[in-house]
C-alpha cells in the first residue's frame, strides 16, 4: 500500500521553499550564519541551559580570562574534554549540505561565505573552505606571552592533559625560541572582544551579500546576532532555519521551522 506523503506537507511552506530557492538561484554573494544548533545535531553539547554543567562547574564560568588566570589547569582540562569530545563526533547532514552548496556556488561563479559561531571545526571537516570562525577554534592555541596563534590537532593537546591530574608545568607551552609562554585555547571568552581582522573579514562579506541563510543560531550572542537583522533592514533576503523561533525571527523574510523542513533545512537550499 502506498502513502501520499504530500498530504502531510503544508502547501504554504512548500510555496515559501520554492520562492526562496528561486531567490537563492539568482543570488551572487551568499552568506550562511551558523550557530550551536548545527553542531548539536552531531551530539556536540551547547553548554547552555540544562546542559551547561561540566563536572560540578558551570561551563560559562570556565570560559573567561579570569578563570584562566585563576586556574589554568582546570580551564585546560575543560577544553581538553571539549576537544576530545568533538574528535569523536562527525559532521551531520547540515554541515555536509553547506559544504556541497559551497562547491556548487564556486562552480557557478558565485561567492559563498560561511560565518560560524561554532568552534568545533565540523564545517571544515565536512569540506567547507571559506569559513570565518568568529569565536576562534578548539584546534588553535595562542601564546599568552608572544600572542602567536598556531594550529594544534594533537590528541591530547599535551601529554599532561591525558592524566587525571596535572600541574601548571605540564600544560602546553609555546615552542618558539626564547618564549616558552603558557598557551591558552584560541577561543573568544566571555568578556573578550572578537579579533578585529575577523570582524573585518565578516563585514566585507556582509557588505557584498545579496542572500543570507541563518542556520541553527539562537540570535542572542553579539555581535553575530546583529548580522542578519542588519541585512534584513537593507532588504537582503534572509532565511532562518531553526527548530524554534528566535528574538529576530519576525525580522526575516523566510522562516523554516519544525519537522516539516528539519531543524537545519539542509535540503531546502540544495
From TrEMBL:
It catalyses: N(6)-glutaryl-L-lysyl-[protein] + NAD(+) + H2O = 2''-O-glutaryl-ADP-D-ribose + nicotinamide + L-lysyl-[protein]; N(6)-malonyl-L-lysyl-[protein] + NAD(+) + H2O = 2''-O-malonyl-ADP-D-ribose + nicotinamide + L-lysyl-[protein]; N(6)-succinyl-L-lysyl-[protein] + NAD(+) + H2O = 2''-O-succinyl-ADP-D-ribose + nicotinamide + L-lysyl-[protein]. Its cofactor is Zn(2+). It comes from the Eukaryota. Binds 1 zinc ion per subunit. GO terms for cellular component: mitochondrion; nucleus. It is an enzyme of class 2 (transferase). CDD domains: SIRT5_Af1_CobB. It is found in: Mitochondrion. It holds the Pfam family SIR2. Keywords: Metal-binding, Mitochondrion, NAD, Transferase, Zinc. Its EC number is 2.3.1.-. Zn(2+) binds at residues 143, 146, 174, 179. HAMAP family: Sirtuin_ClassIII (MF_01121). This is NAD-dependent protein deacylase.
